[in-house]
Amino acid sequence: AFLSDWPQLGLSASSADYYFNSYNHYGVHEDVLKDPTTSSAYTRAVGQNAHLFRGKVVLDPCAGLGVCALLAAKAGAKRVIALESQQELVRMAEAVARKNGFGPDVITFVCAAPPAPPPPPPPPAPAAR
Q1: Are 75 and 53 in contact (CB under 8 A)?
Q2: Which residues of 81-106 are buried (b: 16+ CB within 10 A; e: fewer)?
Q3: What pLDDT score was predicted for residue 1?
Q4: Is the dihedral of CA 36, 78, 104, 23 positive or negative?
Q5: What is the pLDDT of residue 69?
Q6: SS3 sequence of the chain
Q7: pLDDT tens readout for residues 29-62
Q8: Spacing of C-alpha 26 from chain mean position
Q9: Is the distance from CB of 33 to CB of 39 less than 8 angstroms?
């Protein structure tokens, strides 16, 4: 059978959807925080390049719990704007930032969900026979 002969499926999720949606679960963030290789690599990378952050405005897209935002602020960023699509993660990240001495004057978390994808096109009309 040809692909054009197959019935239209009602699914619209792509592999990208599954990948990016996996970050909506706390377990992914917990894994990163508990992984000494990853966390120390981030810390070293920012710490060894603090001169690139000092006095700058930094954007942290897909901020999650704000680990990179915190590292940038600790490296001397004048301001960090951290974007995260999940409101619950934004609330938690704000609390983490405050506990580390950074208020919204230094790290601003913004809940910025990506726009919804357009609906799939309608199936083609059946060919006249």
Answers
A1: yes
A2: bbbbbbeebbebbbebbeeeebeeeb
A3: 45
A4: negative
A5: 98
A6: CCHHHCCCCCCCCCHHHHHHHHHHCHHHHHHHHHCHHHHHHHHHHHHCCHHHHCCCEEEECCCCCCHHHHHHHHCCCCEEEEEECCHHHHHHHHHHHHHCCCCCCCEEEEECCCCCCCCCCCCCCCCCC
A7: 788 888 999 999 999 999 999 999 999 999 999 8
A8: 12
A9: yes
Pair of tokens at residue 64: 């999650």
**Tokens representing 39?**
């966390």
Q: Which residues of the chain have pLDDT under 50?
A: 1, 11
Looking at residue 30, its pLDDT comes to: 82
> Which two structure tokens, joined as six digits, stand for 57?
């405005």
Tell the burial category of 12 from Cβ atoms under 10 Å away from its Cβ (0-12, 13-18, 19+). exposed
Q: At 101, list the tokens.
A: 């001495």
Q: Which residue in this structure is represented by tokens 């966390």?
A: 39
